[in-house]
Amino acid sequence: MPRGSSPKRERQYGHIEKGARRRGAGPARAKEIAARTVNKERARTGEARTASRTSTRDVSSARRGGLRSHGGAAGPTYDQLYAEARRRNIHGRSSMNKAQLKRKLSR
Fold this sequence. Notes:
mainly alpha
């Protein structure tokens, strides 16, 4: 974090870093994600001395995260479908693809 950051940005950095670690990012990658996100938000709100054009005119980090947070039309992953098929003891599940698993589980 840059010197002189507000307590709010310090908390934001910590939350983002913890979230990235929870999702499986390594320590260095989690710090990078947190720093970039916080710096972008600082630039958007005018807290930073310099700001790139994309930082100020692009979609906010919070909005982008919200757009990406839901599975949407893609639905559950193959691994999630496979785990459910295993739980229900569906035979032939190991040779099925995602669409086949989805069909079999919807019955």
